[in-house]
Fold this sequence. Notes:
Layout: H1 2-6, H2 10-16, H3 44-51, H4 66-78, E1 83-87, H5 90-102, E2 108-112, H6 117-127, E3 133-137, H7 142-152, E4 156-160, H8 172-181, E5 185-189, H9 194-197, E6 207-211, E7 225-229, H10 231-244, H11 250-261, H12 263-282, E8 287-291, H13 301-307, E9 316-321, H14 326-334, E10 340-341, E11 351-353, H15 365-370, E12 377-381, H16 387-401
Parallel strand pairs: 2-3, 2-4, 4-5, 5-6, 10-11
Antiparallel strand pairs: 1-7, 6-7, 8-9, 9-12, 11-12
Helix pairs in contact: 4-11, 5-10, 7-8, 14-16
Amino acid sequence: MEKEVKDLRIETRAVHAGDRKKPNPSIPVTTPIYTASSYIYERMETLDRVFGREEPGDSYARYDNPTNRGLEELLTSLESGASSLACSSGMMAIQFALTTALLDRRKHVVAASALYGATVRLLESVFEPLGVETTFVDICDLAAVEAAIERDKPGCVLLETISNPLLRVPDLDRIASLTKKAGAALVVDNTFATPLMVRPLEHGANLVVHSLTKYLAGHGDVLGGAIIADAEHTELLRSLSRTAGPSLGPFESYLTMRGIKTYPLRFERQCQNAFRLASWLTSRPEVDRVYFPADPRHPDASVIGTLFPRGLYGAMISVELKDAGRPEVFAFMDRLRLVVRGTSLGDVHTMMLYPAMSSHRDISPAQRRRVGIGDNLVRISVGIEAINDVIADIEQALVTAAPTATQP
Ligand SMILES: Cc1ncc(COP(=O)(O)O)c(C=O)c1O
C-alpha cells in the first residue's frame, strides 16, 4: 500500500497516506481512543463473517468500538454483570434499558414515585404516548409494590437504589423476588449508590443503568450512560443497540475509563466527607432537616443496614432550610464561594442544587409535593475537598443568609 501511495498525486496521498496501518505487536497499557467509523480486513470473507457475528471483530462503529468495548468490559466487571452497553447519556441508558426490558413483555411499568425528574418525564411524555403505561408507587412500601405488581402485571419494575433527592432506599432483594415471580424485568438506576456500595445484579436485578456523567467519570467533563445486563438480556440488548444506535462516543468512553481508575478512591473519600458534613449540618440551627442514609432514624434504616457495606452511606445529602422559601434559598446559595451551584452530582468538587428548579423542574408542583420536594430543599453532592473548607463555606453562607444577619 505504502509504495503504491507514494506514486499517487498529492490530493490522493492526502486522503490515504499513513492510514490503515497494521498495529505493531505491542499492547498499549491503556485503551486508546478509536475514532474509526468502519474497519477493513485483508479479505472480504472475513468482513462478511464479522458482519454476521460469526467471528469477533469490528465492522462499523454503531455495532462495536474498541474503546467502548474496553469501558464495557470494565463496567461489566464492576457491576458483576454478563455484558454492558455504553450509551450517549444516562437518560439514553434508561430509555434503552426500558425498551429492552419491555420488548417481549407487557407494556406496563411499575415505577418508583421518587425518581430523577427526567426519568418521570421520560415515562410520561415519551413512553406513555407510545402506549406504555406507568403506575407510580411508593417503592419503599412493599405491600403497595406487591399490590401494584399483582394488579397491573407490569413488564418491568423501575427504581433507583438511592432515590433522588430524598435518599430513600428500597428493599432490592424483596422487590427483585416479587418482580421475578411476576415474570417482569427489574431495571435499577444505580447512579447514586455506585457498585462500590450496591451491585443490583447480585440482588436479582436484570438491567442496571448508570449516568456515567456522575461518580464513575467523576470530573464534570463527560456526558454518558451505561446499561449492565444479566445473561438473559445480553443478546437482546446488543442486537437492539446495533439497530437503534444509542452508543457513546469514543472520546467520552476514554475519559470515563480514565475516571473510573480513581473512582473507588474518590468515592470512599466523598462518602467520608458526606458523613462529616451531614453530622455538622444536623447540629445547625438554620437547618430544619437533614436527609442522609447514615441517620439512625432514616425510614429505611433496616434495609440500609443490610444492603450497604459498613461505613458507606453514599455522598449525597439533602437539607431543608429553616423558615426558608425560594428567595431565601437562592440568597443562601448565591453566597457560596467554594461549593459549586450546579446541576450535576458525583464530581470531585462539592455541588449544590435546588431540585425544584433543576432536577425536578418539569414535574408538576403537586407531584413534587407528593414526593416531598419542598421549596426549602437543597441537595448537596459532596466532593473530595478538605471537608473543613466546604463546611466553612456553607457556614458563612448560612450565617450571612440568616434573617438576623445584615444583608449587603
Ligand atoms: C439518578 C439519575 N439517573 C439518571 C440521570 C440522567 O443522566 P444524564 O444526565 O447523564 O443523562 C441523572 C442525572 O442527573 C440522575 O441523577
